Amino acid sequence: MDSSQSRCCSFSSVSRTHPRPSGVTMDGFSISGSKSTQKHTLSQKRKTLPYREIFEFFIEDFKTYKPLLSSIKNAYEVMLAHQREKIRALEPLKAKLVTVNEGCNEKILAMRAEERNELSMLKTEKMHLLKLIDKKNEEKISLQSEVTKLRKNLAEEYLHYLTERDARKILIADLNELRYQREDMTLAQSPEVWGEDPVMLTLALKMARQDLTRAQMELNTMKANFGDVVPRRDFEMQEKTNKDLQEQLDGLKADYEEVRKEHELLLQLHMNTLKERDQFLSELHEIQRTSTPRPDWTKCEDVVAGGPERWQMLAEGKNSDQLVDILLEEIGEGLLREKDFFPGLGFGESIPAFLRFEGPVQNKKPTKKDVVSLLKDVWKERLAGDKKEKFPDFFFSFLERRFGPRDAIAWAYTLFENIKLFRSNEVMSQFYAVLMGKRKESVYINQKELLAYLLKEMTNADSQNEGLITMEQFSTILKNTFPLKKGEHIQELMEIGGWHPNSSNADLLNYRSLFMEDEEGHSEPFVQKLWEQYMDEKDEYLQELKQELGMELRDEVTVYKMRVALMNIDPSLDKQTLRAYLSQAFQLLPSELPEEGNEKEHSIATGLKTAMEQLQAADIKRMGPREQEPAN
To answer: Is there a single domain that holds both residue 179 and residue 93?
Structure first.
């Protein structure tokens, strides 16, 4: 056995004696990325140092395998460097994860504390209600005992009055007997009596005794019939007392029932709160499990042309979705600049007429400023013309007149690719929507006419021609121009214009600055807010129309149903505007629409989804309030 073979055997024996840990390289770092501390890493490096030295010794000693072993060593070194970079990159993520975890734990603790406070309040209220119920029960028992006592007193008084009545009657009978005896003695002693006829006197005495007997019998009958009768005054008094007690008892029963229902509602509310708490807790755990860290948009500062200042200008006031669009536009702009030619799309029917071409098409590479300026020229010529030609055909005709037939197709492709890319640019996005038929050109034209009308009204209010008007004049012009706008929408426009709640109506406003545009076609916030409100009002109007129809988007709607629904939600619609809306919804010429009351209204139908999309593309808006105000 030669020396090289002996060294190989010794190396393999060393490897068998000291097996390398799984996933550990020559210097002790994990290939898959270890999360151990730096101290542990240094300890592993010291442990694996002998293996490294032995491997370097083999590289120097085995001249034949030196290139292979060097490649292996270099591959390990590259992998170790990559893993170190990956570990360093993951350290901030780990710290951020810990921060997010702490924040979520604080929110959970806050929710638990709030829940404990709410439970404590509910328990306190429950104890208060239980005490109130006990108090009402005690009052009820007290009133019942008082009623029992009064009944007992009434019975005693009744017996006492019976005894007094009987004693009085006996006393009256004794007095009558004594009176009769005294009269008899008086008659016997009177000298005049001796002159009377004894027979007559005897007969009178007999008749008087018979009357007395009859009166005594009637008295006994009255006693027997009315002996147990209570005096009416006492009866009415007791009846009134009993009625008052019964009303109090009914009131207590009603209060008790109300308190019992409230207690049941509180218990139900408590159970619902517990269920919601558990649901929110599970959602929180799910969000913690699936959530990803928010992107660090500051990383884009070094990528976007113009550096941090331009990125801050682009990102100001934008959300994440809008920032993604901006970043895509920046990337797409760079790729668009690198292209020298566009591939022709052919002559298919689905290809727009101004893009039908075979072969490569030259990229003219204009700036955004040049594109915006060219699009504005297209609109100026379009507004000055008769508008009989379709907009895509007019667009290509304009390019042929401006650049000649040879370069028209190249400019058509160049402009199309630019307006398709820069969706955040108002001029480009609106031109693209009109060019592709997603929006009627009347929307753009009417919007421009509205801005011109506003500027004219403000100029008329500027009697000194200084470019300044008061806030009161500004508010009056907005309210007169937009009589159907809500008060909060008018206030939004005024705040964007420069009005503040604590400012005076006499403050001056530079109204001309509200309508200015920069070189790339970006308008001021006032114009942007007008456009946003217009789109929101259109969406609200169409949603109200859909609710009035009460149909699903997959259903079909007839001309009659659409006409009735439009008139219901907007009674101020005149016939011409109504026919224009119906013509747009059903894609018919106004002359092809049936007259109101014609049976054809029930036969012409289209899908509700298609009709709503057509109305969304048109310049549709409310013409008056939904409910007509009653005439005085």
So the answer is: no
